[in-house]
Amino acid sequence: MNDDPCSKPSRLARLLWFLLLFPLLIAIAWASSASAQEHEADDDALPQRAEVYSQLCSTCHQPGGIGINEQFPPLVNNPRAADTDYLRTVITDGVEGELVVNGVSYDGRMPAFSTLPEEDIEAVTDRLDLPWLNAWAKSAVIVIWFVLFTVFVPSWVLQSDSVAKMADTTQDLVGAGVWSAGLVLGIETLWWAQREKRV
Questions:
Q1: How confident is the model at residue 198, as a pLDDT?
Q2: pTM of the model as a whole
Q3: Which of 54, 82, 106, 168 has the smallest CB count inside 10 Å?
Q4: How many domains does the chain have?
Q5: Which domain-ending residue is among 125, 143, 173?
Q6: Are 70 and 108 found together in one domain?
Q7: Is the separation of the CB atoms in 62 and 72 below 8 Å?
């Protein structure tokens, strides 16, 4: 058993950090998931977006929007393609003449799709948006959960006075049980959150 007088305050400090940090990360993830729910319609629009793009756009702009050098401009990393109003105008009115995209000149003609239904235009011009904070907050919560509950919590339990007095085999079983509980609870929570689209 460790008789270091600094060990108990150190464990207390780590526990306090955990009690302060973990709820803060949960709050950030929860707040950012509210923002993600605003973009849930994007997930529903993906099949329509893919179908419209593959039928009307991919022949020239290629699958993935990479374009064909000096013939058809790329949509990926194209500053013009980031402007939704510009895209709508090009789709409905067409475009002709020289365009320079990322230093490459394109001189061609895109026909107008003036009879394209509004929902199809919206499907290909609306931006998919997963806020970076949402993704980072989710990742941080997941990493901190698994690090805390599969590394630190089992270690704290094994260092506690009551467990330290137990036989070695019992200590091993307690440590494995706490580790397994943290792992299973984390996996179950991830499954539940993904299934219910809550985090």
A1: 40
A2: 0.45
A3: 168
A4: 2
A5: 125
A6: yes
A7: yes
